[in-house]
Amino acid sequence: MFFAMKFSKPFKSYGHKKYNKETYDGFYRRFKQNENFPEMAGKDIRAYFNFDTEEGEKINVKFALSPVSTNGALNNLKQEIPHWNFDKTKQETKDKWNKELGKIDVETISEKEKTTFYTALYHTNLSPILYEDVDGKYRGLDQNIHTSDGFTNYTIFSLWDTYRALHPLYNITQPKRNNDMIKSMLAHHDQSVHNMLPIWSHYANENWCMIGYHATSVIADALAKNVGDFDVNHALKASTNTATVRYFDGIGDYIDYKYVPEDKSHSSVSKTLEYAYNDWCIAQIAKKVGKADVEKEYLTRSTYYKNVYDPTIGFMRPKLSDGTFRKNFDPMDTHGQGFIEGNAWNYGLYVPQNIDEMIEMMGGKEKFSKQLDELFTTEIADKYIANHEDITRDGIIGNYVHGNEPGHHIPYLYNWTGHPKKTQERVRMIMDTMYGDTVDGLCGNDDAGQMSAWYIFSSLGFYPVTPGSPNYAIGSPNIKAATIYLENGKTLKITAQNQSKENVFVKSITINGKKITDNVLSHADIINGGELIFEMSK
Known about the structure:
alpha+beta, three-stranded antiparallel beta sheet, six-stranded mixed beta sheet, 17% strand, 17 helices
């Protein structure tokens, strides 16, 4: 990382102080140790600058970063803020934020809901971040300097979190930027020694955080919603390359065994479920490209979740390489049970690519609905929470964990059981109890905007349960009215008639006068604009 800084008046001297015990030998020692020498080295180092000033005089500082070079930082400094007007810069920044936050205009029941909504919308715009200089140069994954051609380069892709709702939200509010983000992911693939799409892109690095290859989901969701002009054939090749790196995180075993064996890889059930969903996404990409053989191969792989379901106990369960389920299994525990950051009760319900078949496999609609009821009402013991990464009781309702991502789709699953009212009740309860307008207004790590994106969608009354599909599941809006200003120039007006704290149930829904009876809203209905009307009831 390189930087440049500039003062509004010249300094008369400068120096540094080191707060560590290490010494720096060589040419530097011939001169006065700390003052007016251009070279500074060490850990815990602090630079200082001395000025001749009048009483009350203010000195402004401009500071710029670059991943490329000091010249890049100087160029950024010169072009991004050429003037010294602090108030102008502040106002320009405020105007930019108001433009982004103004893409959705909401009317809420109270000021608390309004503050919570716009705080969440703000969070969803904090990352991914621009990662290039003003001239388009950036440091690539290969540590070489590249120039973005036909796109703006982005980084900070916390994909295990953000593929669920953040990137789907961008396909409504930020489609041009999401297109650039996908092109950035493809550039990451091209620069990768493994020929892999990003798992967790972190500046010019891959930090390999969490499981799955969820860039495939972001690509499939954009294609399903006709977002972007990225090279679809390139995207398919990058996706299949990623899904066949045998030495990465159990993929070779997943291909050979048709599940990830627990005795060969940790978090085996979670990996099997995530890979199966990602493979369904690849099949959707292949279908768009017209590669029937690839589509068939990855649709087959997308069914591998069945191989870790144990019908004798009704849960997903770790399976060993000899084909037997592992003994000594506790579906309530999150530690060493084949899952990561979740247990069999919540993570085991992760088959977004084929919810109907999962419900049938688990005993049918009524049994599954009762299982969801039990999930929300069974109190989880302290000993299990102690083993659960990142979670406290603030993010838990019964045994349902909202403070972490694997269960974010679960409240909406009642829609597939014939009990949409339960989805509506649960969603409103989560918005009321797990989000707020204070400093502790989130029930868990926001994880680069995913926790907040869940709130934005749910507040508006729908949620992308299956990214890669053009459909959204209907929930229960908590806004009175909202207008979404779309990039195509159209607007979607959302109205919740008879809205109140008590009226959490949806009596009827219409989109442009057409009645919705299946609790499904299509992306085309949103992006074409018009009016979505919820009639709320007790």
